[in-house]
Amino acid sequence: MKTLCFVLACFLLTGARAQDKSEARSTAGDVRSAQDYVRAAPFPMALPALPELRQGIFLITDFGAIGDGQALNTAAFSKAIAACTQAGGGRVIVPPGLWLTGPIRLASNVNLEVQRGALIQFTRDRTQYPPQGSNPTPLVYGENLHDVAITGGGILDGGGDAWRPVKKEKVTDAQWKAMLASGGTLSNNNTVWWPGTEAKDYRPYMINLVGCTRVLFKDVTFRNSPKFVVDPNKCTDLTLDGINVFNEYYAQNGDGIDISACKNVLLYHCNVSAGDDGICMKSSGDWMTAPDSAALENVVIAGCHVYHAHGGFVIGSNTDGGMRRIFVTDCDYVGTDIGIRVKSNAGRGGLVREVYVDNIFMTDIVHEAISFNTYYEDMPAGADPNKRTAPKPGKTPIFTGFHISNVYCRGAAQAIALTGLPEMPVHGIYFDRVRISARTGLTTKDARDIFLRRVSITTEQGVPLKPEHPDDIRVVE
């Protein structure tokens, strides 16, 4: 077993400031309020504005809803939301019960309050989800709304097992046999099972809000989604507070929380277990037209737990809209494939900078504790892994200005892997107070200006540090 400790001679000023704030939190005791986390961010940001909602109450049972798990309540939900909107807004109450429904279309000034004991079960009848573009209607959706919320201690179940393909390699023999016995369709190579009558990837998102302002998700549980679970896109002033997201570990494309091209975002005390990325930042657009801005910016992720997922905190793969001012702190990742995962490729990339990751605790990470990968490629269900496509030219990923501090990991296949492109190396990455035990250590390929300060890597095999070139990493023992 080999251990490597480094002390960095020079450290970027902004990184040092972020470190000072971390130390202030640790000496001040438990600082856990959302306001304190936002204030601790190493960039100026205010708490996202919350929805302004009236107190009117609209009980779905007053509009014909029956909570027996048999009656279809799509119309009742629609009528209750319409009445709430017509009255100027308020709370659409889902009381305890089992509420079967098709898609729910939200509206401005509406809080869908799913009370503890309430279980919204989305029907597995595919005919209830008519096409919207190239996908079926999302389970819960809205566009260009303002002042909208989903709250309460209840559960929304997406019935995703009626939609999702399953790769044989991801399930046990008993599970695979049960799926085959239930019907469905096999891929040509018999390695992917589809629940429908054809091998076609046609699935709705679960929660899909686009272009909305002042959005709140609080205390609810979202589970068993056909595809991505919580997927806000191009939203401003977005708060996710104390929500639980659960998809089966074998859920194909079952991302937990995807924040796509949003601004002024707080994820606070959320719990995620997913079949794909846990908490993921995405961004699409043309950042070159405004180099001082980004499609995704001002994001604070604090006090969150991620269990099974492809990555605990993830950036990408779509980064071409640009990202900046992201602060991740006080989070735990247990058993994720990768802990901190930054990914993109030529054709999907853009400028990602001003990312601060601090106070992260990880254990039993399957692959890398920390990974930067600019050769990421989607592998849809049924795709031949031997027929990978070449990356598209243009839209080059630029990963720079990352500050990763106070990260502790016990158990990983590899400590850190940094892989850039020959034409655009990963660069300007700062590590401070990082301690990792792993089978292998730190490697670089097309990476430069990687700074290590107070870093300890303990390996079972090989040397703790194996850069492609000796000067890729700037360290002093």
Task: Describe the model.
The chain is globular and about 70 Å long. The chain has 477 residues and is mainly beta. The chain has 4 helices and 39 strands. It has a 29-stranded mixed β-sheet that branches. The chain has a 3-stranded parallel β-sheet with strand order 6-11-17. Strands 14-16-15 form a 3-stranded antiparallel β-sheet, with helices on one face. The protein has a single domain, classed as Pectate Lyase C-like (3 Solenoid), CATH 2.160.20. β9 and β10 form a beta hairpin. About 5% of the residues have low confidence.
Overview features:
477 residues, 29-stranded mixed β-sheet, 4 helices, 39 strands, Pectin_lyase_fold/virulence, hydrolase, polygalacturonase activity, signal, GH28_Enzymes
Topology overview:
Elements: E1 2-6, H1 13-27, H2 34-40, E2 57-59, E3 68-72, H3 74-86, E4 90-94, E5 97-101, E6 104-105, E7 110-114, E8 118-122, E9 131-132, E10 135-136, E11 140-143, E12 146-151, E13 155-157, E14 166-167, H4 173-181, E15 185-186, E16 192-194, E17 207-210, E18 213-218, E19 221-223, E20 236-241, E21 244-246, E22 257-260, E23 263-268, E24 271-273, E25 279-282, E26 296-302, E27 305-306, E28 311-315, E29 323-334, E30 338-343, E31 351-352, E32 355-373, E33 398-399, E34 402-419, E35 426-438, E36 440-445, E37 447-459, E38 465-466, E39 473-474
Parallel strand pairs: 2-4, 3-5, 4-7, 5-8, 6-11, 7-12, 8-13, 11-17, 12-18, 13-19, 18-20, 19-21, 20-23, 21-24, 22-25, 23-26, 24-27, 25-28, 26-29, 27-29, 28-30, 29-32, 30-32, 31-33, 32-34, 34-35, 34-36, 35-37, 36-38, 37-39
Antiparallel strand pairs: 1-37, 9-10, 14-16, 15-16
